[in-house]
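Quick one: examine this chain and its backbone structure tokens and tell me how the chain folds. Here goes:
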Amino acid sequence: MKSDLHPTYRKLTVQCACGNQFETRSTAGSIHVEVCAQCHPYFTGKQRLVDTAGRVDRFRRRYQTESTTTTPTG
């Protein structure tokens, strides 16, 4: 068998944007996540808008129409 074939598997701390931290094991150096079980709406039961780099505003600007006040004809 070849020696030193597998990467090192070590403990690391996963850090969430909400401030929550937990330990796990991985070959990665460090992990930063935006949403975890402590702040995700599915687990907390609260609806919360998670905006990453203004993407919600970008979506609203892109699909905003000037004819929002007109009534449909037909």
Q: What stands out?
A: Strands lie at 10-16, 21-26, 31-33.
